[in-house]
Amino acid sequence: MMSCFAVANMFVSKNLPCAVDMAYINVEIKEGTRYCLELTDAGLRVVGFAFDQVDPGCRSQYHETIYSLLDSLSPAYREAFGNALLRRLEALNRDNQS
């Protein structure tokens, strides 16, 4: 299990099948919403709206990165990313003034 500023929880599904070219990842965003993601050569996409759940009717778009996917799903991620970027820029500015 992983928790960081970007998500509340993220882990590879132990209940859904994995293959060399595909895996399922469960993610809970900061807002508390849970998703099941499919990871393939095409990228990441939402395939279910609960952990370990694949909804055959779910036809979401693929994202090249987890950051792009989170940006589309989570306002809290966008805010946390923006705040982290701002802190980094402020630190660089302080370093350049020293």
Work out the count of structural domains.
Answer: 1
Along the chain, the helix and strand elements come as EEEEHH
Low-pLDDT segments: none
How many DSSP helices?
Answer: 2
Lateral strand order in the biggest sheet: 1-2-3-4
Describe this protein's structure.
- With 98 residues, the chain is an alpha+beta fold.
- It has one domain: Hypothetical protein (hspc210) (copper amine oxidase-like fold, 2-Layer Sandwich), CATH 3.30.2280.
- It has two helices and four strands; from the N terminus they run ββββαα.
- It has helices at residues 66-73, 75-97, and strands spanning 9-12, 22-28, 34-40, 43-48.
- Strands 1-2-3-4 form a four-stranded antiparallel beta sheet, with no helix packed on it.
- A hairpin with a 5-residue loop joins β2 (22-28) and β3 (34-40).
- The longest helix is centred in the last third of the chain and has 23 residues, at 75-97.
- The radius of gyration is 16 Å and the shape is elongated.
- The mean pLDDT is 90.
Task: Give a topology summary.
Elements: E1 9-12, E2 22-28, E3 34-40, E4 43-48, H1 66-73, H2 75-97
Antiparallel strand pairs: 1-2, 2-3, 3-4
Entry keywords:
98 residues; four-stranded antiparallel sheet; GSKIP domain-containing protein; GSKIP_dom
Structure in a nutshell:
This protein is an alpha+beta fold and about 100 residues long. It is built from 2 helices and 4 strands, in the order ββββαα. Helix content is about 30%, strand content about 25%.
